[in-house]
Amino acid sequence: AERTREVPVIFVTAMSAAEDEQRGLALGAVDYITKPINPPVALARVRAHVALSERAAMLRSLSEKLSRYLSPQVYKQIFEGTQDTKIQAKRKKLTIYFSDIKDFTATTEDMEPEDLTYLLNKYFSEMSKIAIEHGATIDKFVGDAMLCFFGDPQTRGVREDALQCVRMAVAMQRRMADLQALWREKGYDKPFRMRAGINTGYCNVGNFGSDVRMDYTIIGAEVNLAARLEQNADADGIMLAYESWALVQDEFQAEESAPVKARGIASEIPCFALKNFLAAEAQRNFVV
């Protein structure tokens, strides 16, 4: 049963052959005590295993809590030993997703702190769930903004990474349409409206920071461009840079918008606004 799954099992038996002990330990016993039994020694061994079990449970609980501060992919690689926790980065082609709430300050200036906390946490919870379902690496939340990327630590290939990113963005906007309706039903007359920018390009990705505090993140001009695209998007809209659009145009529709400039990129960047992506009925299989 789930409740007793982690309880340590100690065999106490008259079967003293080496193969019996080997079989008992192979079945999952943490110890094997044979007769004649010395009660003080047996009790000391039981106490030692109970203490070890309690410490293991504490470490599992701590691990689960720490996992909430890391993207699932990064957390998994660290605990599997495949990701070093030292300052280092690599250059990779990623698809970057950046979103925020349109007119966030104006929308929330008259809102009570409790209502703002509820709406913002619900918004991030729903968007994070969709991001994880699509395989995104969630980089960070900054105020009302969310940064994700595809292509690291795992990649499906540049085209499929871009497709997954746009599919995720569409799923998020569809979920937002549902959330907006439900928030209005709860009495919020100015529900959040999200806008998103997507860009594909080479970034430096890895651990940045110091020896005592680091962050697994991405840096580079392509990240700035994703943020600039998001700022250029309409409320409830998704704006793509040209390369991202070229990779996904077989699956989605878009129309060209005015080019944008971004810090660190000399030339203007052609961009495309996704269209007709809210036509399908949004799913409503979640609890608000």
Provide structural commentary.
This protein has 288 residues and is an alpha+beta fold. The strands form 2 sheets. Strands 3, 4, 5, 6, 7, 8, 9 and 10 form an 8-stranded mixed beta sheet that branches. Strand 9 (253-262) and strand 10 (265-275) form a beta hairpin. The protein has helices at 18-26, 39-67, 72-80, 104-108, 113-133, 158-185, 221-232, 242-248, and strands at 10-13, 31-34, 88-101, 137-142, 145-150, 194-209, 214-219, 238-241, 253-262, 265-275.
Q: In what range is the share of β-strand residues?
A: 25-35%
As a percent range, the share of helical residues equals 40-55%
Class from secondary-structure proportions: alpha+beta
Helical element count?
A: 8
Radius of gyration (CA) equals 26 Å
Largest sheet: 8 strands, mixed
Assembly type: single chain
SSE sequence, one letter per element: EHEHHEHHEEHEEHEHEE
Whole-number mean pLDDT: 85
Per the principal axes of the C-alpha atoms, what is the gross shape? elongated
Low-confidence blocks of residues = 281-288
**How many beta strands in the DSSP annotation?**
10
N-to-C terminal Cα separation, in Å?
A: 32 Å
What brief labels describe this structure?
288 residues, alpha+beta, 8-stranded mixed β-sheet, 8 helices, 10 strands
Concise structural overview:
With 288 residues, the chain is of the alpha+beta class. It is built from eight helices and ten strands.
